[in-house]
Amino acid sequence: MTEEQPAGMTRRTVLKAAGATLGAGAFAAAIAPLTQWKPAESVDEFLRRHYKELTPAELTEICRRVEADAKKTHGIDVHVAAPQPTPGVKFGYALNLSICVGCRRCAEACHRENNHDRATHNSYIRVFEMDNGTLDLAHGDATYDHPVPAKGKYYMPVQCHHCDNAPCTKVCPVEATWKEQDGIVVVDYNWCIGCRYCEAACPYHARRFNWKKPEVPASEINPDQGYLSNRVRPQGVMEKCTFCLHRTREGRLPACLEACPTGARVFGDLADPQSEIRWVLANKRVFILKEDLGTRPTFFYFFDK
Amino acid sequence: MSPGITVLMLAAAVVGVVGIAAVADDHQPVTTTVTERGQPHPVEIRRHPAPRVRTGAVDHACLPATIACSTCHAVRTPDPSNKVGSDLDQFHQGLQFQHGSNTCLSCHDPGSYDHLRRSDGQRLAFEDSIELCSQCHGPQRRDYDNGAHGGMNGYWDLQRGGRVRNTCIDCHDPHVPKYQGAIPMPHARDRFQQGASHD
Question: How far is B84 from chain A (nearest CA, A)?
Answer without folding.
Answer: 27
